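Below: protein 1.
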Amino acid sequence: QVALLDIDICGPSIPKMMGLEGEQVHQSGSGWSPVYVEENLGVMSVGFLLSSPDDAVIWRGPKKNGLIKQFLRDVDWGEIDYLIVDTPPGTSDEHLSVVQYLSAAHIDGAVIITTPQEVSLQDVRKEISFCRKVKLPIIGVVENMSGFICPKCKKESQIFPPTTGGAEKMCQNLNVSLLGKVPLDPQIGKSCDRGQSFLSEAPESPATSSYRNIIQRIQEYCDQHHFQEEKII
């Protein structure tokens, strides 16, 4: 059972990507009911609270923090195995709030996404520094848009050249795990726009194989993290 919480308050894209655009949140005696993609995947996003997906959310920090707290307190997820929190880029109010509010829950860790070029890696180094300052474990880094594999000749081209060594070099320097590299695939963008599962739509894509390997590594990390906590208890 997986819960997906979108706390990108000003740019909620999860409803579109999950095929849930236009859905509404319902309230019951036990709290807000998440919107379900499948029986084992529930979603909550500020996007469900907007009258139109084009509406701008112009909120200052305290109001954002209040909504995040309400999501964490009032959404009735039921029994879940994983809570995945999708955050906006950077190190802003949303990140500080969710780390603070979930501190007692012993967060497994953060998965940090980058692209190969240095302009992206600069921001990711700041995010790694943020995690270490707030004592948030880092599960690892995923390099997105990591080369393009031609579907016909199978030759790989570097659309975004890793001029400073990409995520692999950065992870070595900062002693962080590289969970995997996801190559460019036009079908990923199409699947997101249509709200369809890329893994189901393109099972033979090299990107699908990368995603599955990354998911497996994250699951193994979480299982090990829980095992160590149980030993301490």
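Below: protein 2.
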Amino acid sequence: MLPSIARSPSHFSEVRRSLSLSLYDGFFASVYAVLTGGFFLTGFALSLGATEWEIGLLAALPFVANWFQFVGSYLVQRMGRRAPVCVWTATTARLLWLLVALLPFSRRSHEDWIIWGLMVLVATSYFLGAISAVAWLSWIADVVPENLRGRFFGRRNMFNGIATVGTSLIGGWFLDAWGKTLSDFQWLFLVAVMAGLMSIGFLKRIPEPPLTSSPQKQAYFRALLRPLIDANFRRLLLFTMVWSFGVNLASP
């Protein structure tokens, strides 16, 4: 059962406990994210025989998955809860990497479709992760007191950065030391799943404050378009679009 509280946490010890749990969640989630993306995923796909076009398609999947954030916000609106949406979609997304790790065992008998099997599993994991991210952001924004948000997220990002750099270095060393075989990638994916589930274990212990407004009070699509009324939000949206276009055009 996921914990729930009747009102926003006000007692200092409860707030401190929730923030500590979120720090641990972020640390292990970063380990999971590093080992299931970037050069680890690219190296695994190349070892399976992926072409350059298929590698490019894999690299595009996280950006396509962002469209599923609309599904996440819709589910939160319909259910009136963030924690169940976040926990169950994130758990499913991370467990799918067990199937990814098993793909090499079917390489000889199903070599013609194994890359597309990888695409489907990775895409599904990313789509579920995008849904989870929306629910998580809304949930944690209500957990962290407004006067502590800057300090807390700065500290959380610092720990996430340590986990990211450390995992990249250790994972890269492991592949270099053992020859970059398919079994090496399989072991890394298993470690990623364990780290991801540890992250969920900390996350689900964070109490969930109730939503500030009832999902029945406003139509979903009307609420979705409401931020566009704000001129500053439109400027931020335009800047983000132009920035992302430039970065992703140059990065390949």
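The longest helix spans residues 114-143.
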